[in-house]
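Section: Multi-chain targets

For targets with more than one molecule, the full set of components is provided together so that the structure can be written out for the assembly as a whole rather than chain by chain. Components appear in the order listed by the source. The example entry contains two components.
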Amino acid sequence: MERSEKAQATTDRLVASNLVCGYGKHSVLHDVSLTVGAGEIVTILGHNGAGKTTALKALFGLLPLQSGVVIHDGQNITKSSTASRVRGGMSYTSATSAIFRDLTVRQNLELGAFTVRDSKVRAERLARIHDLFPVLKDRGSAVAGRMSGGQQRLLSIGLALMSGAELMLLDEPSLGIAPSLVTELFESIRALSRDAGLSVVLVEQNVGAALPISDRVYYLRAGEILLSESADEARARDDWWELF
Amino acid sequence: MEYYADIAIQIMFLMMLALSLNLLVGYTGETSMAQAAFYGIGAYTVGLLTMPVAVAGLEIATSSGVAGGAGWPFWPAVLISILVSAAVASAISIPALSRVRGEFLILMTLAFQLVTTQLMGSLTSITGGTFGLTPIPPMTFFGQSLIKPSQVVIVVGIATVLTFVFCYRLGESPFGRVLKGIREQETAVRAVGKGTVLPKVIVFGVAAGVAGLAGALNASYYQVAAPQSFNLDVSILAIAVVILGGVANPVGTVVAAILLGLLNPVLDALVGAEASAWRGVIYGLALVLVMRYRPQGLVPEHQGPLRFLRRRRRRNAPAVAAAATTRAPRDGAPDATPGAPGAVPSGPAPEVVLKVEGMSKSFGGIKAVSDATFDLTRGQITALVGPNGAGKTTLFNLITNAITPDQGAVTLNGTSITGLSISEIARRGMARSFQDGRLFERLSAIDNVAMAIPDQRAENPFILTVRPLYVKKRERAVRQSALECLQLVGMHADAETLVADLSYGDQKLVAIARLIATGADVLLLDEPTSGVDPSAVEHVIDVISDLRAAGKTICLVEHSVHMVERLADRAVFLDQGRVLAMGSMKELMARQDLKEIYFGA
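Its structure, encoded as tokens over all components, is:
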């Protein structure tokens, strides 16, 4: 039984089926299913309050599921803790407060690689992130909470990249980031997925920036998946919002 | 019978003490370790006032060195006890409460509690020392001296009910809303133009006054005031009751006081002499279990029978209101048209509303803003653009004095506002929003917005007490205005939803509504639409254009080029803390150097 499940899921890094979850008594997600392949970037679009953030939290194990199954690399992780999901190669960047404000930038980044034992790997990743966002190198000894909102956002993404996760859940990565960097950031995410097989679930209101790097798009409305299509098809639409 | 009445009285004393403390811990988010000290001050005050006057040569049966009291009748003495407790509390709280962080208050009240207990025990000539002040005359009621518990329970019962009603009404009033705002986000309360020190000092005094009342009744009932009844253990017990019951919910406090209060007699009956040992174990266990399984307490903030009734009533009210309103300007309402339209000629001459000159600030070695000079023109939208870390938000902080500038001057409508507090600046007509929202998370959307409406006389606890009908009427108008502001951003359907339960994008919309509600003429918006869905962004663009059309002066920090191009009449380009250029967005983007900084190659 387990074996056949595994065989089916080899191309899918993450399979979430029939997720139902919410806060307290009222559920926010009703029967949400989605898949993410290896090296695939999947974007969830939807209105404010559609349940996008809730979906990411559910995938990361931050919210208990009322029902549904989550399979990561062929393993059923529905009941796993968030910590074990991180060790299993997942990362989550929340739209708010995703850094350690009282630590320095450098310490933040080092904590991002908390689960990585090999110091050479850590140094390599640090160098790559410094390449990507030079400001994190220049201000390495600055207290993170003292940096501007946009710089903190960059740091939060750097933190997620340090973990070397193979599946990143990104909630509004472009929030508060200047246009020049948004393009760069998204291109580097695309490059990572192409070269290193990084899978990404992206929640983003900046549709114009997200669609070009996405492979597939899910439209979420009021906690339900309305439609899933390839990003090419989505790009061809100029009336995404008519959908809702 | 007398036995049960005595238990009921003990429970009610605990209840009153915890209800008063809940005003601080629950509503204001300030922890006081000295509630028992104020309880004790009430007790000793009533004792000293009511004990008979010493007569030379005639020994009164005082147990210790106390010569005698003032011989007052009971109720005037109670009144003075309340006032003395309140006055002492207000006086000692001012230095701690004028700071933003709660740790100072905890340390200071802890010290005050310890010192007070110590003095009660050692100032023998006044307090009677460790054995206490005794005999205190019993309480009187309509000329009757009450000694039997079955008589006293009636008076204490009435006092407890009154305390409950008082605390409940205060907590749910406009004043209570300000307190909750202070608990959630003190800077945001200041940013909408309200002082926060005075409400904190007042509530500290009021809570101590209620504790003083309980203490006065306590002393007259037991006819003794002794240090061990008012020591740190009692303060901690009161805190435990508040936390166990649920903060900011008087119903929870009542439930928890009954549960913990019944523990003593039940244990006495069950295990007799070992009761005190078991009591500690059970208290500890109960707290641990509640923290684990019901961290918000037995009856959480937004629950309970009374709250439920209120909700039902409210739900009807806004429905009617929403149907009736179409942005009609009204008295005191923060509508798009400010107070005196005659004073603001919509004439052609561009009028500089805000002048910022030579603004500079360094953090450590980093120059966050250096020598920034620009101005805002009435009825125009000015965008601050530039890469991350250019100093845009810092500039907002400096203009509103949320951070003190190293150098520079700010002039609003021709008057210097340099060095004024952020709340004073808001009252003078310039308000700002925050990049991260800074909403009051555990308040509903409408309460968030209502907090920002200026000149609410109903927030004055004195008026609240003496003119309840007026307050009710004003509050209805305030909620109506708040609802209209929510309607402007399309959030009126969620008016009663707790902000914490809203999505990030919806929270940003509520933040815009809150800013509009201040009625300020100059609005500084820090990334108002980041994280807001594109269709709502279009709506926000319309709202901001309407504000401009109504003569508001707007400054915008925004990374969405789409939004800046649609809205901004003028842009100020910042990089590394310096103003590099000013002009229309088109002009700026025509400059290759700026374009590179902002868009990359």
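Chain B touches chain A through 36 residues (CB under 8 Å).
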